[in-house]
Specification:
By secondary structure, the protein is mostly beta strands. The chain has 2 helices and 9 strands. The protein has a domain of 116 residues. Strand 6 and strand 7 form a beta hairpin. This is DUF177 domain-containing protein.
Length: 182
């Protein structure tokens, strides 16, 4: 199955030239650079803020089938705790590894190809970061969340309580002074 690969925008900081690696196995190049984060790099509750720094440390190796990219991407995460809605911020490092096939190779739909002697790391970065982010990020493992009645953050006072709520249909009976029969 041949997949359609679009032309890479050479102005993008996530597009790398691989011409000097040649088409033979054995050559290698290391790349370290800081690039701005693309838009929508994350989930709705947690992600990498657009334009924030991503530190890439990569190794590009020419192999028989194409160019193997491996390394890390260090990012700053920002989001909200799924239980108490407090802001979450922190640094995280994600591992990247992807084989980009030379043109003319039969590739599957989800495989990547070298286009005009360039590789586009946008998809690789998205796969590495987004697939590793938690669906329910927590500010801490034992987060108590919010009070279901008033929205108070239970982490601030774990003993937070409300008076027992009486069902309005029975409120009149609570006012009666009923004595048990003996």
């Amino acid at each position: 199955m041949t997949s359609v690969h679009r032309r890479a925008d050479r102005r993008s900081p996530l597009v790398l030239e691989v011409l000097e690696l040649g088409h033979g196995a054995g050559s290698m190049r290391e790349v370290s650079r800081t690039v701005p984060a693309p838009a929508d790099l994350g989930l709705e509750v947690i992600g990498v803020p657009e334009g924030s720094d991503i530190d890439l440390d990569l190794r590009l190796e020419a192999v028989v089938e194409g160019v193997l990219v491996s390394g890390t991407a260090a990012v700053q995460l920002h989001g909200a705790c799924a239980r108490c809605l407090r802001d979450i911020e922190g640094a995280e490092t994600f591992r990247l590894q992807e084989l980009f096939f030379y043109p003319g190779h039969e590739v599957e739909e989800d495989e990547r190809q070298i286009v005009e002697d360039t590789i586009d790391l946008d998809g690789v970065l998205r796969d590495a970061v987004v697939l590793e982010l938690p669906f329910t990020p927590l500010c801490r493992e034992d987060c108590l969340g919010l009070c279901p009645e008033c929205g108070f953050n239970l982490n601030d006072d774990p003993t937070h309580e409300h008076e027992a709520v009486i069902d309005a249909r029975w409120a009149t009976l609570a006012d009666l002074d009923v004595k048990p029969n003996n």
